[in-house]
Design goal:
Metallo-beta-lactamase, Chain A, 7-stranded mixed beta sheet, 7 helices, 16 strands, about 20% helix
């Protein structure tokens, strides 16, 4: 399996012979409004062309409809005949953009031999979660491939650790920029990412959703320093740069 971080939460997965695009956020740097008044978003340019990002994509997954996960550029340039998986309730909005094959991921489906299972997430806790709305994570499993848990826009809370225990993932993708909304944490920060690593000591954690938005509070360097101080090494916690591709295999003993 290969994971290529594009930018923010946008990933290209090469998995079980298929190419999957997750949460396309394709706008040019500084072309969208600020969340905090600090800077227009996104903060960084795409590391490769939109054409290269979309090349050979066979499935698109949209975890939720926030503009940094499915933006106006993606709505325009992603091929309208590609299958799109989304959380229940988002399919009318995506179909309304002209996408012809939209499926709500109610529980689990098997697509091209890959079992894709929706997992709970909470985009913050308490009143801020109501402002953020519903989100989803997911797991992917296929013969001969590592089990992947893509946690999505969630803080670390009991359903996340329960998913770790139940799914026993080889790879966990976390959103670890410590983004704040009205002062409340809405995705994992360094402390929660370290706790996630400790909850899954045999898994490789890949921290993304970093250095792309102006409401983030944790940089890649911050996370690496905090992890190092906590005894979490670079072999367990990977923090890819935009455009970087990571190749990962199934654990030898599960």
């Amino acid at each position: 399996m290969k994971i290529q971080l594009i930018r923010n939460a946008t990933l290209r997965l090469s998995y079980a012979g298929c190419t999957i695009l997750i949460d396309p956020y394709l706008a040019p740097a500084h072309s969208l409004p600020s969340y905090t008044g600090k800077s227009p978003n996104p903060l960084a340019e795409l590391p490769l062309s939109v054409e290269d990002i979309l090349r050979d994509v066979e499935l698109v997954i949209v975890s939720h409809l926030h503009s940094d996960h499915f933006d106006s550029v993606a709505k325009r340039v992603v091929a309208k005949d590609l299958p799109v998986l989304c959380q229940p309730g988002d399919e009318p909005a995506i179909s309304g953009e002209g996408f012809a094959d939209v499926t709500a991921l109610e529980d689990s489906i098997v697509w091209q031999g890959i079992t894709i299972t929706r997992r709970q997430g909470s985009h913050g806790l308490g009143p801020v979660q109501e402002k953020m709305g519903s989100v989803m994570g997911l797991t992917l499993a296929a013969p001969g491939e590592p089990v992947v848990y893509w946690a999505g826009d969630t803080v670390l809370y009991p359903p996340v650790t329960e998913t770790v225990k139940q799914a026993v993932p080889d790879v966990i993708v976390s959103h670890s920029c410590g983004a704040l909304w009205d002062g409340d944490l809405i995705v994992m920060d360094a402390t929660q990412t370290i706790d996630l690593c400790r909850a899954a000591p045999k898994a490789t954690v890949v921290a993304v959703h970093m250095e792309a938005l102006d409401h983030a509070t944790v940089s890649r360097a911050d996370l690496r320093a905090a992890a190092g101080s906590a005894g979490i090494g670079s072999s367990q916690l990977l923090i890819p740069a935009d455009g970087e591709t990571i190749e990962l295999a199934v654990r030898q003993a599960r």
